[in-house]
Amino acid sequence: xxADIALALRGVTKRYGRTHALTGLDLAVDSxxxxxxxxxxxxxxxxxxxxxxxxxxxHSGTVEVWGRAVGRDGILQTGAVGAMxxxxxxxxxxxxxxxxxxxxxxxxxxxxxxxxxxxxxxxxWGRHKDKVGAYSHGMRQRLGIxxxxxxxxxxxxxxxxxxxxxxxxxxxxxxxxxxxxxxGMTILLSSHLLHEVELICDHVGIIAGGRLVAQGxxxxxxxxxxxxxxxxxxxxxxxxxxxxSELVARHAVENxxxxxxxxxxxxxxxxxxxxxxxVGVRALIPRRPALEEVYLDIAxxxxxxxxxxxxx
Amino acid sequence: xxxxxxLRAELVKVFGQKGTYAGYAVLLVLVALVVWGxxxxxxxxxxxxxxxxxxxxxxxxxxxTTIARFMMEPSMFVLMPLxxxxxxxxxxxxxxxxxxxxxxxxxxxxxxxxxxSKYLAGWMHAISVTLFLGAIxxxxxxxxxxxxxLVTYYDGLTILTEPMALTRLAQxxxxxxLCMCAVASLGMFLSQLVSNPLTASAVAxxxxxxxxxxGQIPYFEWLKPYLLVTHLDDFGLLFHSQVDxxxxxxxxxxxxxxxxxxxxxxLIIFHRQDITC
Lengths: 312, 277
Fold this sequence. Notes:
heterodimer; A: alpha/beta; Alpha-Beta Plaits; B: 10 helices
């Protein structure tokens, strides 16, 4: 157990009737990192976040925050956690400002300057006096993030923070989370927007069937062999060369280009073989697998082989 | 400390909604109608005084206190419980439905504090509605009919001097407020069990009415002393010429049990409840 681990779920199980939502989930989030929790619908992401926040009682297992096991209300009683679980919820008949002051009061203090700063940070200053009922989906999402940031937490838990945001909003949330992380905040988020997760997160964990099936730094998760993208002037001839070549382990045609995986790293040899066969090679680009591909491989397989630790 | 913060937030929520004031508006309209009727047709107690009796009453029959006393009678059974449950039934269920309960519990607050603050807010609303009825009846009654004795007829003609009538009215409305707190408790408890505020309110009122029906069935008569609805009109005991407080302790105890039992059960349930909404 390390104090560098901000948050850990150990052997957490949860059943709803006969349905096993979590089956011995082990999860560790390093201090000062942005951890993305991924998984298909019903995999247990929200249940894990709810257990972490004390909204749901686990059947077994423990939650540890900065190396200390906490009880049901424990993590929130530390006052060091800000959270937005599922879609943000507000009192529609109150303004954004009032919603935030009421919420801040429950954390023990209301500092108007702090609320103002957070509202400016999420681009809601100027609309803060409007009733929340008049807010768009994206504005509510941003208000939800603002709510989680007051008062400034050490650990931020966000469930689908980028849901419903426009491209500009997505970029702003991305920048905001990176800034917060740079300031020392630990962030745990769940999302279905894999591209965003890839851009934002340092670490990811993939939950499937109620348990963690893979986790590791994003950089290492996507550093696997993505093969090479090959663009040529004569695809048919190139394919016949590739099929006959012992250099190529496998190949596929994707979006008008050929993707090849080599047995050993030697793209120059493949290039020579193609040129020798009279194929004009326009491009031979090393491909890195997108997080989405890694995710689909792992979550789709959902093997019973236990947790796959990548790069750890 | 945190309970007080939560209570303040609850009161802001309850009294920050326009819908809450609809109940007060309904009561205002009802009192205005009774005042107009009394001004037009005489004492609302007149019929019961003259029914099958050769009774001649001279002098001022309708005063401010008469209106305040009369208003307790028709309001306590359905109207007031309905208005109280309309708010109390939403205190938990509406938060669950909106998802704001999740947001509250994501703050460093204890679940017990949330329950205590909500029940306190519900009771305060119930008390405020009851006292509003008393205050507005007395105020409109005084404004139209002026001051004077309280003349009623239940087990006989009763005439209470104005100071005595005001004391009895204060006691009577305090008893009614206690009853409405019990009704609010019922509404809030049901609000914890369902996720629809309307359902909670409707079931709470239906429960009261069902109690009334059960009490009328001969083979359930033994249940009658234990039913909340039986005690909703026991304020009448306070308007006899001589008040015997002895028989009032049982109704007061019963109402207190109805007020506190759902609260205790609510504390236990909420502590164990998974917030999955």
